[in-house]
Design brief:
With 59 residues, the chain is of the alpha+beta class. The protein contains 2 helices and 2 strands. Helix 1 packs parallel to helix 2. It is globular.
């Protein structure tokens, strides 16, 4: 299932998640645009990051 960043952030907030990690971002988004998507999600769910190749997150 694909979601917008705001949909994903809303679901994370609703689920009382601790951390939202966005992934599978279209290649049409460059680094700056990807960060804008992250910032958009952070307006709804502040603890949001974007997974990049070889990213490591504690869960």
């Amino acid at each position: 299932m694909h979601s917008t960043t705001t949909e994903a952030a809303g679901l994370a907030k609703e689920a009382n998640a601790k951390h939202l990690i966005l992934t599978h971002i279209s290649s049409r988004y460059d680094k700056e645009a990807s960060l804008a998507l992250r910032d958009e999600a952070r307006q709804i769910f502040p603890n949001t990051d974007i997974a990049e190749d070889f990213s490591v997150f504690d869960i």
